[in-house]
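INPUT
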Amino acid sequence: MAASNAEPMPEVVTEAIVVIDLVESTLTSNLFGWYAVGRQVIRDLRALIGEVGESRGLRCLRSTGDGYLLTFHDPQSAERAALHAVEAVFELLNRVTHRNREVPEERALNLRCAVHLGEVDIVSNDREGPHVSLAFRLEEISRASLPAALNPIPPEQFPLQNYVLCSEEVAGILSRRASPWEMVSIGLLKLKGFPGWREVFLVLPEDHPVDLGMGMRVS
Amino acid sequence: MEVQTPLRKPLALVFCDIAGFTHLMAQEGDLVASALLREFYERAGRLGREHHSLMVKFFGDGFLAAFERVDDVMPFVISVESLLSENPTFVGRSLGFKFSLHYGDVLYIETSYGNDVLGEEVNIAGHLNDLAQPHEIVISQAALERMPSNYQARAGASESRQFKRVGDVEFRRVSLLGS
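OUTPUT
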């Protein structure tokens, strides 16, 4: 059915957009069962996201099937929303690490996370717009994407799971705001549906020991 | 296997991007699009070897090729462009090639996925490609100065664009129509 022209325009806000994907969730559910393992794993993830996001301006939390789309808002400063988003994602990864030590291997949570900032349309507990698509494109980047990048880091040095990627926009904010996180350019990539080359950054947690070879550090 | 030592050397860097590919995929479907890409990779790779390229790296609907001699670039570009009018896979489709050329010092390395070139100059060549129109090559001043005089004479007015971490880059456009 075609949308009515009389439908009000959605509210547009600038938010930090986070896409979190559960690594190998389909495989886990197929191997160990959705009701036995998969459902609890995704519920645990939702609960952890709620815990780390609540005090950091989490506004939207929507399931994407094997992960979540989140947005963070700061009424005073859009840039601060990006900082809160990155902080929340690292706190989530910390909690996931602790949780994984306590549970059987098949119930472990392993994540791929991507953070972007941009204007989004607010639709009931959801977000729409090209910036949302861009965040999903960032999340899709993996080791296998690097041979097609310009100035890539060596693919072997790209983590397989539990990492945070961010867009140029977010990297710029983290850099300007003297955030505690270090960023490494993983290269310039073409993202499907978006024109031109886009530089993508791996955000490293504080005191991260990894040497990423020829990657270009920006902070 | 002997591992090559990374080598810093001045190279001519050519980018090519197929304009109209996304539209083609939407209109004719994935099968046609992937067949066209296979043909493009095969032909462009072969032309690269024939014109003495050090490497051709493909990504999506484009490629990056590196040459030691700038003189080899335009014959290569023109032969790729002529695929549009001579190769049955391309003829009659609304496609155009957008090229860019830059010259500078890069690190030429062997990687787990083949040979590659690294350095800020690669990004410049890539960003210049975003400025090109179909059937056109955008050439940085650094590359143009090293090109044969007949191509220098064909170059359009000087333009410049600012790129992150690099500053202003001067370039000119050369039409490939009728080449």
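end of record. Chain B touches chain A at residues 22, 57-60, 62, 64, 107, 111-114, 116, 118-120, 122-123, 126-127, 130, 164 (CB under 8 Å).
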